[in-house]
From TrEMBL:
Belongs to the ABC transporter superfamily. CDD domains: ABC_MJ0796_LolCDE_FtsE. It holds the Pfam family ABC_tran. It comes from the Bacteria. Residues 22-249 form the ABC transporter domain. Keywords: ATP-binding, Nucleotide-binding, Transport. PANTHER family: ABC TRANSPORTER ATP-BINDING PROTEIN MG467-RELATED, LIPOPROTEIN-RELEASING SYSTEM ATP-BINDING PROTEIN LOLD. The keyword Transport applies. One of its GO terms (molecular function) is ATP binding. It comes from Lysobacter brunescens. InterPro entries: AAA+_ATPase, ABC_transporter-like_ATP-bd, ABC_transporter-like_CS, MacB-like_ATP-bd, P-loop_NTPase. This is ABC transporter ATP-binding protein.
Length: 251
């Protein structure tokens, strides 16, 4: 808990100080393609507080996935600094990044990447087996509403259900951070909303810091803050006065 300012005095209590978990300064990413250099990030400065729900918007090619991948330790910047709490991620070696990801980050991608020959339960178990302090596998499956389907194989599930398995797999290790790259990109309207509800519930019930990339500007209503990227730069950051539930969004 943050200390209360002015305790014991007549001063009004200051709003609670929420610790910053991600801190990026001058983040730059350049991809070398033979003779050609593609600058994906042009010097991004960003703080993300513990428990924030961030939506990352921007045109195709604006650098959203590059930024998310660097925050999640899947990639490293070409220049600049990025840290998660006390972990410096720029300049970290592969082993250090692997440990960081394993201990702190759950990923959800547009495509679910489940193992087809394993059941729902076994897909989630696989991650629980290598986690330090996993939640019970059945609890993770329950949190995404798939208890009745836990012995089914991915091919027996709809796209939205497979995405919910991917979310169960991401959260079973109790990550402090959930990074989602177009989690509803392959889903229809109703199914996409159901997946967003699951992500919202994880955020609200577990206090997970969440970053969601989307092309769908309506989803921005779910966020505490909306970060709009353009051409590798943060174009603007908007704070929502209050977050909307997925059921309140329409597109
Ligand atoms: N591995 C790579 N090699 C070369 N260039 C890359 C690579 N990954 C991304 N880029 C380039 O970096 C820029 C930013 O890409 P990025 O995928 O981060 O954008 P994005 O906003 O996530 O796009 P989209 O919405 O289409 O997924 C683009 O110009 C892209 O072509």
């Amino acid at each position: 808990m943050a200390p209360e300012a002015g305790a014991g005095s007549s001063a009004e209590a200051a709003p609670p100080v929420v610790p910053v978990v991600f801190r990026a300064r001058g983040l730059r990413k350049v991809y070398a393609m033979g003779e050609v250099e593609v600058v994906a990030l042009h010097g991004v400065d960003l703080d993300i507080a513990a428990g924030e729900f961030i939506v990352l918007l921007g045109a195709s090619g604006s650098g959203k996935s590059t930024l998310l991948n660097i925050l999640g330790g899947l990639d490293v910047p070409s220049a600049g600094e990025v840290a998660y709490c006390e972990h410096r991620l720029d300049g970290a070696g592969e082993a250090e990044l692997t440990r960081f990801r394993r201990e702190h980050v759950g990923f959800v991608f547009q495509f679910y990447n489940l193992i087809p020959s394993l059941t729902v339960r076994e897909n989630v178990q696989l991650v629980a087996d290598i986690a330090d302090d996993p939640m019970p596998v059945d609890e993770a499956i329950e949190r995404v509403g798939l208890t009745a389907r836990r012995d089914h194989f991915p091919s027996q599930l709809s796209g939205g259900e497979q995405q919910r398995v991917a979310i169960a797999r991401a959260i079973v290790k109790r990550p402090a951070v959930l990074l989602c790259d177009e989690p509803t990109g392959a889903l229809d309207y109703a199914t996409g909303k159901r997946v967003l509800e699951v992500i919202e519930r994880i955020h609200d019930e577990l206090g997970t810091t969440v970053v969601v990339i989307t092309h769908n500007a309506a989803i921005a209503g779910m966020a505490d803050r909306v970060i709009v990227l353009g051409d590798g730069r943060i174009q603007r950051i908007e704070r929502n006065a209050h977050r909307l539930r997925p059921s309140e969004l329409s597109w």
